[in-house]
Every structure is written in C-alpha cells, then in structure tokens.
Design a protein that fits this description.
Distance between the termini: 27 Å
Number of helices: 8
CATH superfamily of the largest domain: Zn peptidases
Largest sheet: 5 strands, mixed
CATH architecture of the largest domain: 3-Layer(aba) Sandwich
Shape: elongated
CATH topology of the largest domain: Aminopeptidase
Strand content: 15-25%
Number of domains: 2
CATH class of the largest domain: Alpha Beta
Low-confidence stretches: none
Radius of gyration: 23 Å
Oligomer: single chain
Mean pLDDT: 90
Structural class: alpha+beta
Number of strands: 12
Helix content: 25-40%
C-alpha cells in the first residue's frame, strides 16, 4: 500500500489493485491459497462466479513482496532477493499399522511396533533430502495410537511435506520414499497406506518482470540475488493467470512461523524504493508498447 501511495501524482497507463488474500497457508481449512484461487476462478463475487473470473487480457501482471521466511538472504548479506521460482509441494499423510501390545509381556522379537517402523522411515526422509540438492523434506506431525507409556504403538499417522523447484525431481523423491516405506514395513510385518496426497506444481516467475525488478534494485546499488522460494505464496496461483514477480526481504535470524519472525525497517524502506521504481518502469514499458 505504501508503494502505491508513493505514486501519488504519477499518471500510469493502467490501474493498480491492492489485494489482501486469505488462507494462503491453508491452516484453518487444510487447503492453501483459498483467497487467490477464489480470485482466479470466480473473482470476488461467489454468487456470480460464472461471470466474474479474471479477464487475463486486461491484466498486466501481478507483483508480491514478502519476507523470505528463511536464512538464505541474511547468510548472503543481502537485504533483498528476486524470486526465480516458487517450489512445488507434495503433501502426504501416511499410516503405519502394526499391533498394539503390553510393554512388559511382548518379547522384542515378536513385536509389530508401528512407531519404530515410522521412525526408521522418518530418518530415511531426512537422509534423502540431505543427499538431493534442492530438496527439502519435513515430517512435522505424528499421531501415535494409543499413545500410552506402557503400550506398544499399534498405529502411527505421519505427515510428509516435500518441496523442490523441479517437479520431476520432487515426484521422484515421493516415489522413492513410498518404496522405502513399503520395504521397511514388509520387513517388520507392519502395513502401510497413503491416506491423503496433494500436489502443487512449481511456479516460475516471469523472466521479463524479473529483469525489470533486477534493474530497479541495481539503481539503488542493491545486489539482490536470485532465490528459490521454498515457501508457498499466492503468487503461485497468480502465476497461472498473469506474468508474476516476487521480491523477498531478508528475515532476521531466519525465524518463521514463530513469534520471532520479523523484518528490518531499513529493508522495508529499500523494498519500497525498489517497488516504486519497478512500477514506474513497468508503466514505461507499457507506454512504449
């Protein structure tokens, strides 16, 4: 909003709309990008969705500035970064089913412990991500049944979050890990099943808009390195509608999804200057066209 306000008095050949999207993370309803998907698919009037879809021919582009939510820019000493691609995501929920039993009377050789099997698989997830450049993998949720101190776990439900900027490599990693799960469970007489699976393809940013953004950074002497966004953003959805660009601001300490998440005021000031010039430069290209 501040960047748009800085354009007061400027005559642009297009309108600028500032949009606030809801449910980018998908925490409340377990489905990400609800707001931007709504705009893409039926505009802002759900009861008139057949007639309210965005007219792509009337949209110049989409731009989003966001904190990085990670440590890369700070490690490189860069206040800003230009996003090249938003990584694709695979999200799964898998179930390991064994046999619950008494912790004192069940010999170790006769156990079908779902948790120890799930633990072996989780370590395999970490190992694959460490061995595969660009791949990040997280098991962030475990549901253990019956979750009692003196009972052998009979069932474990795990989440799996896999991300890579190359969809083929991400898909291959998913298949590798599913094969590993099947092999481990076969060895331990434990069953395995996928109970949920969703996939979001990678979203490359528009090369021309990236170049304009790079030039706007250079004008202020800012070295803004290219960076892949591991986090999902509404720009993922909008890139399927119109040319899209993203500017990252460094995150002090790399902290994200916690109370320590922050941004430096001086980085915000730099970003506003860059955004102002980016919009002016886009307007100039539009005029010349």
């Amino acid at each position: 909003m501040e960047a748009v306000a800085s354009l007061e008095g400027e005559k642009l050949p297009f309108a600028i709309e500032v949009v606030g999207f809801s449910e980018e993370e998908g925490v409340r309803y377990k489905t990400p990008y609800l707001g931007s998907r709504a705009l893409r698919e039926f505009g802002l009037a759900p009861n008139q969705w057949p007639h309210a879809q965005i007219d792509k021919s009337r949209v110049v582009g989409y731009f989003e500035a966001h904190i990085e939510q990670g440590p890369v820019l700070e490690a490189e000493g860069a206040p800003l970064g230009i996003v090249t691609t938003i990584a694709g995501q695979s999200r799964l929920r898998v179930r390991f089913s064994g046999q619950p039993g008494h912790a004192g009377t069940s010999p170790m050789t006769l156990r079908r412990d779902a948790l120890t099997v799930a633990s072996r698989w989780i370590l395999a997830v970490e190992s694959l991500a460490q061995e595969t450049p660009g791949l990040v993998a997280t098991v962030g949720s475990l549901e253990v049944v019956p979750n009692t101190a003196n009972v052998i776990p009979g069932e474990v439900v795990c989440s799996l979050d896999l991300r890579h900027d190359c969809d083929d490599q991400r898909a291959a990693a998913v298949e590798t890990l599913l094969d590993v799960a099947r092999e481990i469970t076969k060895q331990r007489d434990v069953s395995f099943e996928i109970i949920a699976h969703s996939s979001q393809p990678a979203a490359p940013m528009d090369p021309e808009l990236r170049n304009v953004l790079h030039a706007a950074c250079e004008r202020f002497g800012i070295e803004a390195p290219p960076i892949v966004s591991g986090a999902g953003h509404d720009a993922t959805v909008m890139a399927g509608v119109t040319p899209t660009a993203m500017l990252f601001l460094r995150t002090p300490g790399g902290a994200s999804h916690c109370p320590e998440e922050a941004v430096a005021p001086e980085d915000v000031e730099l970003a506003l200057h860059v955004m102002h010039n980016f919009l002016i430069d886009i307007a100039g290209k539009f005029d010349r066209a």
